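We close this part of the discussion by returning to an individual protein. The amino acid sequence and the backbone structure tokens for this protein are reproduced below:
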Amino acid sequence: MRHFLHALKWILLTALAIPLTLYCILLLINIRDVAPSEQSKYYLAQIEETDRTLANNLNDNAYIFALGFGAPKGELPMTTGLDQLQKLQNKDVSSIEITTPAKYYTPPKLPLKSCLGEDDFLATCKANIKQSSDLKTLLSNNRWLIERYQQLLNMSTWQDNPNFNNFMKALPFQNLLIAQKLYLLEIYENIDSSSPKLTAQAIEQDMLFWQRLSLNTYILSNKMVSAGAMSVNMKLGEVILNQQKLEQDAVQIPTSWTKSVPANVLSLSNVKLGEWLYFTRITKTTQVDDGSDDTITKIATSLLHPLMQNQDTANRYAEYLVGPKSQTECLSSVSIDTISSYIYNPIGKYILCTGVPSFNAYQLNLDKLERQRANLMGRLER
């Protein structure tokens, strides 16, 4: 019995010593993080440059105007936008006022309903608009919002910042998209008193604004909203030109429709910078003890934190964003080679394998714009 207990003691000690020794070896291997890679350095330099550019573009910056677009009637959107910008820069996100149409006025009931989502949107939208008996009243009551939107379109630059990528609700998208539809509906309503050239220019101005936003934004949500707005521009614009052809027997096509959507408008390069910055900040905050975790979680977290190398993880994510490679060497099977690849920065590599979304779906949605434009031109040229 004594020999059995003695043997059991050594078995237990060995069972504890082996994982403890392996953990200590891992700690020694992970004692230092790596230096920033060239791509990470490039991203950091770009972030500094965008900070300077934003600071130098406060007066004619459509982004700041858009931040304040939901301000009450009679107030200046630029003043509200600058206040919102200051809160973003101070990371005072709790005090950022997210405005909705219902806050200051009743959202208008547009005659479009859900026609823009229909396969036969052209006929459906035309029928819905013609059935509306109060379009003039609708446009008259929202004249101030249309004029505010026209001011936005007249601005020559869009400069936001990747630092604001985690404040996705800072822009009043609902207000902006309602204003866009009202703007286009007014063009439709004024067809008989406007020349084909002026009609095309008004549609063109709207399209160029959203292209400029898509080209210059570093925020993924802004990019995808702009894609939706460009799609609306082409659909409602086609409704307008179709009606104009019936009434005036002459149309002029907006110039931007006749050319392929610029590749940089469809590119995700800028928003990938914003996503990289957001990802690196999130991984750092996960290592901060906020005091809300239970004891077991705190112990597990304290044991795993040394095995997470922030800069190595950031470098790998930057490489993934700019190249065709997979996120990292993910464990597809258990072997010595795959396990050995996880010896350094195992937590960071695991996060990259399991927690990084693909950009493929976003790119597919953006690429649909060019197909929509080509199909639109095919119909208009018939």
User: Anything to note?
Assistant: The chain has two domains: 42-261+360-380, 269-358. Residues 226 and 241 are 22 Å apart (CA to CA).
